[in-house]
Amino acid sequence: MGAAKAVRPLSLEEYLALEREAPVKHELVEGFPHAMAGASDRHNRVVVNLVLALGPLARKMGCRLYASDMRLKVDAATVYYPDLMVVCEEDPGEYYKEKPCLVIEVLSESTEATDQREKLRKYLGLPTLQAYLLVDSRLPRAFGYYREEGGWVYREAEEGHLPLPCLKGHLDLSEAYYGL
Asked: 146 with 165: CB under 8 angstroms?
């Protein structure tokens, strides 16, 4: 049996320093780093399709679209790498953002539970967030949580489109699954 080692949560600064040197990306969850697995071809193709579909809308609204490599700080001890996020207001962080109006996660077998539970709870607590969308990489299906006056509303679609409130447009599911 190996010797026991004391562990403690990392500060944001310690985490960012670790990430600068790490050969793989880590998300920070309640102060503890968790290595991220690589994504499948299908997952990556859905992300690229989403970037192509949302890019013109983001540009038209004066917003910035970030895909996969920009961190999102959701609280003092938790930082994720969402598949996509849109930021429409001033958010000057160089290595992470804090004020997205839209976050999209592409579901796969390995990420689905985390995206639908842990990340859902954390993302919906962001004051600037207007929508959190989950797009399935395995079959044409997407659903989302939308901030409305009375709280959060759930919408889903297997065809057609889902609204993108801060971009004043819609996500056409046929674009998300183009070529798949």
From this structure: yes
Q: H/E element holding 28?
A: strand 26-29
* pTM score: 0.92
What letter represents residue 82's amino acid?
P
For residues 38 and 44, give the distance between their C-alpha atoms in angstroms, rounded to a whole number.
Answer: 10
Summarised one tens digit per residue, pLDDT across range 54-97 is: 999 999 999 999 998 999 999 999 999 999 999 999 998 899 99
| Closest C-alpha to 129, from 155, 102, 154, 93 | 102
The residue ranges of the chain whose pLDDT is under 70 are: 1, 6
Residue found by looking up tokens 């901030």 in the block: 147
Determine the straight-line distance between the first and last CA of the chain, rounded to whole angstroms. 48
In whole angstroms, what is the distance from residue 33 CA to residue 71 CA? 13
